[in-house]
Amino acid sequence: MKKKLTLVIAAILLMSGCGADTSDSGDDTLSSQKTEQKTEVTAAEILDKLTASGKAEKMTARADFGSEDFNSMCDLMYGVTLDSLTDGGVIFEETGQSADEVSLLKGADESVLKSRAEQRAAVYDGYAPAEAEKARNALVFTYEGFSVLVIADNAAEIKDIITKE
Predict the structure, then answer these.
(1) HSE-up of residue 93 (Cα within 13 Å, Cβ side)
(2) Radius of gyration from C-alpha coordinates of the chain
(3) Stated pTM of the model
């Protein structure tokens, strides 16, 4: 009889969840931690998203952080050393007919890219005044730790694509 009573009590305890933590707090905490642990976006991912959008169709040349092309451009285009950056990339119109460019630099101040826009304007002043004006109206902003330069007729649209989650 004692054996049956013990089995009945054990069954009741199992069905009632005695001793089990039925609160959702663990799951909520885990869920909120996952939300807070946003993965860091890379320059390559941003440029891929921009290229896929079709809004940077004039910009057919690309150099990504770590590539030989990007490494050689750092000092030439931006006046910074590669070792001062932690990520970056650039897409641009390679024929020189247009000033269009999107540069992303992580580890460089916005002033570096403002100087780059001024440099682009100076290049086009003599022979393509519309391109020089486009460079003067460049957007320079910060996004996800990157200093970003956008020189394009549709610069505001490109900024929206870059900053859109």
Answers:
(1) 18
(2) 27
(3) 0.77
